């Protein structure tokens, strides 16, 4: 057996610290949230409000390890990182596109790159399902894959590329770094019929959104944290136009939107309705900026998507308030978001047979 060098040992120790144990622990701990909640008046309620809970499943994700490609393709993660940086410098919006691809892939049958497939033998692809028709970033994944194939043919899965690229994109956009376990295989098929049932709508109420995430094993707290990814990117007018023109047949805007925000949204939608709008949560002076400022905007009635603004409509508002609480809230959010992303990346990993490593991410094994 190959003995790990000291650097490998340090990396393993760092990952073990974040994941608690090699078994992805369920150890109770006093989280940053608990420290913040001590200062909050609205701290009751139990459930997700408990400081003692785990973000992680009870067992280690099957077949996933840290540094899976260390021997078979030592430069794999570096190639992903450098290519993502190159793409980001050319167009910062690639970060949101890659993160959204990652989410829409992992939320169906785990991170198996099924969302990247074209039609197979006439069967519809996941890309054709209504919630996925606005997905972007496929070309970015193809560019990363081509470079990896040149360096290490038939070695690095498209599924691992998506997980790594999402993390690297978030870091470039100002988000937290977190450990990425690798060793996933690529699915040989897509799951078109399941996309519409599993991916929550941009117009969903908070109860519908919570239910969708709960069915994938996520708590209320984790759900609110993950939706913080909406602090970056753009959204097309067609996803929110009904909120500013004739909401629910009332002939009036959605009364949960700030009046000034309604005018900003209308200005974007003037014309053919296809114009994209910055999510509106970015930090002053930055077009793209990941962070808890998203939650402060929601408290001010400036959520563009109804599913975002709905986080202030029910019990989820307590988490919005926690994350919006200045520097301490930002710290809690970044910690929670990183843990929830690790959990999302560990859902139902496809490893070994019947998985494959595709040569081209849009095509089945050739």
From TrEMBL:
Write down the Pfam families for this protein, in alphabetical order.
peroxidase
Q: Which residues form the Plant heme peroxidase family profile domain?
A: 63-365
Task: Report the enzyme's class at the first EC level.
Answer: oxidoreductase
Residues annotated as binding heme b = 230
For this chain's record, the cofactor binding note is:
Binds 1 heme b (iron(II)-protoporphyrin IX) group per subunit.
Q: Where in the cell is it found?
A: Secreted
Q: Which domain of life is it from?
A: Eukaryota
Q: Which GO terms describe its molecular function?
A: heme binding; lactoperoxidase activity; metal ion binding; peroxidase activity
Chain positions recorded as substrate binding sites = 200
Identify the SUPFAM superfamilies for this entry: Heme-dependent peroxidases
One GO term of the biological process aspect: response to oxidative stress
Disulphide bridges in this chain?
Answer: 73-152, 106-111, 158-361, 237-269
Q: Which UniProt keywords apply?
A: Calcium, Disulfide bond, Glycoprotein, Heme, Hydrogen peroxide, Iron, Metal-binding, Oxidoreductase, Peroxidase, Pyrrolidone carboxylic acid, Secreted, Signal
Tell me which EC number(s) this protein carries: 1.11.1.7
Q: Which residues form the active site?
A: 104 (proton acceptor)
- Show the coiled coil region(s): none
Q: Name the PANTHER family on file.
A: PEROXIDASE 25-RELATED
Function comment: Removal of H(2)O(2), oxidation of toxic reductants, biosynthesis and degradation of lignin, suberization, auxin catabolism, response to environmental stresses such as wounding, pathogen attack and oxidative stress. These functions might be dependent on each isozyme/isoform in each plant tissue.
Q: Family membership, please give it.
A: Belongs to the peroxidase family. Classical plant (class III) peroxidase subfamily.
Q: State what protein this is by name.
A: Peroxidase
Q: What is the lineage of its organism?
A: Eukaryota, Viridiplantae, Streptophyta, Embryophyta, Tracheophyta
Q: Which gene encodes it?
A: prx18
